[in-house]
What we know:
Elements: H1 4-32, H2 42-48, E1 53-57, E2 62-64, E3 72-78, E4 81-87, E5 90-97, E6 102-103, H3 105-110, E7 117-120, E8 124-130, H4 131-137, H5 142-162
Antiparallel strand pairs: 1-8, 2-7, 3-6, 3-8, 4-5, 4-7
Amino acid sequence: MLRKGDFDRLLAPHLTVSERVDEVIRECEDLRRLPLLSGLGPSELAEVGPQLRRERFAAGGEVVHQGDAGTRFYIIQSGQAEVVQESGAGSRRLTLLGPGDYFGEIALLLDVPRIATVRALTPLKVRSLERADFEVLLSGLVPVMTAEAETRVEHSRMVDSLT
């Protein structure tokens, strides 16, 4: 006869594996809900997931600062942030960002300093990716993001020339 304690001890390693599989599936589903990553397949999402670091910022906290070197790419999971650009005439809000929006790609793709400051307006949850992982794991998205980044930089320069 098998006692309950022995049964639990024998099953424990299998339950841990099952819990980990469930966790990976939930992680992939969460990532798939982000528009930028929705086109990635299950194996790509399973590769990207562990590389994405979860970060939280309190309302008012700076995520990136204009002029700093870019080292990370960010995807907003929840909350709201503002993109602010400083100039000789003061600071100006460029846009608001929310769940599914991303930022930080311009500095990484174009190898330029951060062109704006991103500040949390509400408690903010983001997923972030180091430069090397961004370049390797999201290489299929780089052409689309590069074009968008260049458009953002040009828009920023045009606005600067008007002020």
